[in-house]
Amino acid sequence: MQERPTTEPARESLAGLLGGSKGAIDASLPPAAFVLGWLLAGSSIGWAAVTAIAVSVLVGVFRLLRGDRARAVLVSLAAVIAAALVALHTGRAEDFFLLQLLSNVASSLVWAASIVLRWPLLGVVVGFALGQRTRWRQDPELLAAYSVASWVWVSQYLLRVVVYGSLWWAGQVVALGVARTVLSWPLVALTIAVSGWVLYRTLPDDHPGLRNPRPRRVTGEPVTTDE
User: Looking at the predicted structure, is the pLDDT value of residue 191 above 80?
Assistant: First the structure.
């Protein structure tokens, strides 16, 4: 029996579609600078805040030079400044990581809600990247695969909430800085890889791929396959 050739020579990696984890690498530098400044300045939150903001500005300039959008750079800088102001206001160095903790709580809830509402955010993000808008939702198999793979993203946010929350409660500033680095770009890279694997494992073997959503078949309609 002759094997049917696949219509998609090689399935695209999710990392290629989402752009990898470069942004997460950049985002991990200011928190690391905060901890380093805090240690070198004898637990001075003021100097730690200045160090983190200075590094954030340098990262922002680097992003602009490589062609990133100014809006994204300003949002990242504003987040670092806000985190520094929180720590300065409370007088607790660990509170520099409080906004990051809360943002992961919010992200886990939003991603979980998107799955329940049948608008999995992984599908929204990939669909936007591919210029499909909401066409992917017309494909039941693709919708189901995006829903299952989105739980991997919920899990990464919950992992951060548990780790950050425990260390923040214990006041472990250095450990928070280490965790912020370990659970940023390495975890993002792992999440993209695992969710991509889950996504393609969930899709049927004969599915034409992420770029080719196929509409819902009417009951009784004959299934056609490529020769």
Answer: yes
